[in-house]
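Obj.: predict assembly geometry.
Materials: sequence records (below).
Method: joint structure prediction, all chains together.
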Amino acid sequence: MKSRIGFFDFTGCEGCQLTVMNLEDDLLQVLQLVEVVEFRELMSETTDRLDIAFIEGSITRPADRQRLQNIRERSKTLVALGACADNGGINLLGSDQDVATLRQQVYACDAKHLLTEKPVPLHEVVKVDYRIPGCPIDGQEFLAVLQALLLDRDPELPNFAVCVECKLAEYPCSFDYGEICLGPVTRAGCRAICIEGGDRCRGCRGLVDNPRTTPYHQILEEHGLSVEEILEQYRTFNIGEQP
Amino acid sequence: MSRKITLNHLTRIEGHAHLVIDRKAGKVTSCRLEVVESPRFFEAILKGRHYSDIAPIVARVCGVCSISHTMASLMATENALGIAPDPRAGLLRRLLSQGEILQSHLLQLYFMAAPDYLGIPSIFQLISQRGDLFSRALRLKRTANRICEIVGGRPVHPVTTAIGGFSSLPEASDLKQLRHELVDALPDLEATVELFVGFEFPEFSRPAEYVCLDPADQYPLHARRVISSHGVEQSVAQFKASIDEYILPYSTAKMARTERGHYCVGPLARIKNSFARLSPMALKVAAALQLHAETDNPFHGLKARLVEVIHFVEEAIQVIDDLLLHGFYAARTTAMPKSGGEGMAAVEAPRGLLFHAYTYDQNGLLTSADCIIPTAQNLASIEEDIEALLPELLDLPDEQLKQRVETLIRAYDPCLSCSTHQLQIVVH
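Observations (raw structure tokens):
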């Protein structure tokens, strides 16, 4: 029998679900193996039992907590899809100010329906079985995780830095352009796509396990940069996980 | 007798909302579109950040229109800091925006809207019986994504876009290949037009003011002036200054109006105000779909979207020819501004006019940001349309009533991630 999978979203931009939709040809093959049973953005159907729930976005309200708990109860496996679900992502920018201050700045109004809490990643509310990092996720990595789950194996994320993928592709080093790049400490799996695009690594996939900080300090020193400058960059996508 | 119908977390739209309709003695007493997407306070979290970080962060307002947010953001920053991008970069930006409109429109037409007219809950139902249709939808979407990949680096959240132009340029060979793919898409587009010509669109009309960017030079995408079907012609700054953003006690999206009242933006507004600017193929398709510049039927938003798909495919081919013939622009700008400043820009996003306005201090750090989103400008019109449509639907069984109202809402293709930066329907 086909695995029953669903896609759900909370506070976020829906870019990770869209990245799944953008798999096109691969998607057709995936649909031979799984049955999509719930996906509010593209389907009106709902279900009471799922094998795998892929969930995008952060949790900001009591009603969202309940909806997430309900999805957890219906699902055998729950996967955090993308940075917002995984570690809070950019939803946590501004978390140095309290939510009431932010609300006043944007809405100048404290109406009940506007009340939210500090955004939290899924694992602060329910048990998360696996995670797919990134802002947005990488489509091929989503397929690799899905494949592992369908084969009853634990999905594995690359445990080396974006720098490795970047050097293999022979892209010029962002530091040589005078930019602050997070490639030396960020988890690979994105094929260094931002550096290919002429940008620098902004660290959206979070830290690799046991990052090699000594050589990184050397790079920073060579370019006259401080740890604080790098942390400032790191916080954009990872403020929820201070190293 | 009062009746309550509940539709929670409206489906097949981008984001979350509920619709609440109160009625008594067969009359609608109120109609509210409650956007329940959680607020994300983008305007506040941008404060104090360096101008080079603004566009990549603000792109995350919305996965579907990340390119439009990026474009509006870059242009607003450029205007604020006095940076003039190379006109060739402007042409490449136009191609990238065309790619996003095609992505968004094709996803909406096939995956969100078509099931209403095919009488199915989702297009996934068609995989076994109508595999041809499902594959065609994916093929067309892939072609649109390819534009965004080749020009923007990836389909969602672009990585090659930069202040002053682009940080990386496509290869000429990739643009040639892209041109082949766009030409090869024509039979699929023809089949799509045949499919939509066969749909029965509800008869309905409600006059409204339609607003879009000025089509004086070309079909509206990036421009400095705004026009309306009510004869308004203003600079982007003048029009933005005339917008009154307000908050309702039930919605997390801001709403927008001018002193003339509510107005509509999006594909129908663009087509109505720029009909003469449509490409030859798009004009033929408009005739086949019986879409006229005079239409006041919001359900025709769907037809407008399809006509734009044809238009932008044709225009993308022309832009590629121009780029290949006359060359593109040298990447990576090093232009660094010396002072702060204030600036704004508007672009035509897939769902209509999008404004970004910023102020920077002399260190290039952002001191204020304001974004006005297309769906925020359309929300009141959606409510007014539903109110106007409901009297003729009130005798229908609940399920049919909900279906008709949802079809109308989807005709606007609302993007609620954007507007709060979510949909349920409740009828009392």
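Conclusions so far: The beta strands of chain A are 3-9, 34-39, 50-56, 75-81, 130-132.
To do: check interface contacts against the pulldown list.
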